[in-house]
Design brief:
Elements lengths: L1 H5 L6 E3 L2 H8 L3 H13 L3 E5 L8 E4 L2 H5 L1 H12 L2
Antiparallel strand pairs: 1-3, 2-3
Helix pairs in contact: 2-3
Amino acid sequence: MALTRNATNGTGECKLSTSKLAAQLGMSKGGVFNALGLLVKLNLAKRIHAGDPRHPAIYVLADVKALVNPTYAQLRLAPRFIR
């Protein structure tokens, strides 16, 4: 939910440091890092930029409609590949 609250509207991108997420959630930075890894492993989010000490990692949240209905995901992706 913290990623959702901090995500950019329309893109689902979230740029927030583990320190800031930890402060918002009352967790340790290690706990946040482990939770983010689990979200990626479960395909609920994808890390598109690893980040470094000066820039936070960037995560993109999964499209909920595609998770609930795989047919919707196929229809949504199809126009990209039609030429």
